Amino acid sequence: MYLVTREIGGAETDEKEETRKNAPDLQPEYCHYRDEGCEYADSCLGCPFPHCLYDEPRGRQRWLKELRNREINRLFKGGWGVRELAGLFGVSQRTIQRALKNMPPALLPQQSEEPAKH
């Protein structure tokens, strides 16, 4: 069984679609584009990021997570413990450990190689 469907005013719709396909791609100077930016930059042309955060899937979330992890690493290097960092950032201790796991070895606090004397 075949069903045939039509839009109301089908002939007009075909003409509109055809003109859209054949419409010229306008040059930027003929387009009315308002560069409103986002919360990170006043305009897209003045954005500090090499690629728009909103063009990548979860781009903004990934960027905020990287900032958080850098701050966790900096505070850990400054002497904060995992438990205190978890409370400060409102995340689990395991999340703090994951952030520290990706930290370059050169930035980790140095632990003494000597066994503890009793």
Short description:
This protein is mainly α. It has helices at 10-22, 59-77, 82-89, 93-101.
Walk me through what this model shows.
The chain has 118 residues and is mainly alpha-helical. The protein contains 4 helices and no strands.
Task: Write the topology of this structure.
Blueprint: H1 10-22, H2 59-77, H3 82-89, H4 93-101
Helix pairs in contact: 3-4
CATH class term of the domain at 57-105: Mainly Alpha
CATH architectural category of the domain at 57-105: Orthogonal Bundle
The percent of residues in helical segments reads: 40-55%
Mean pLDDT: 76
- Biggest sheet overview: none
- Tell me the β content: under 5%
> Cα distance, first to last residue?
89 Å
Could you name the key traits of this structure?
single chain, 118 residues, mainly alpha, Arc Repressor Mutant, subunit A, elongated, disordered C terminus
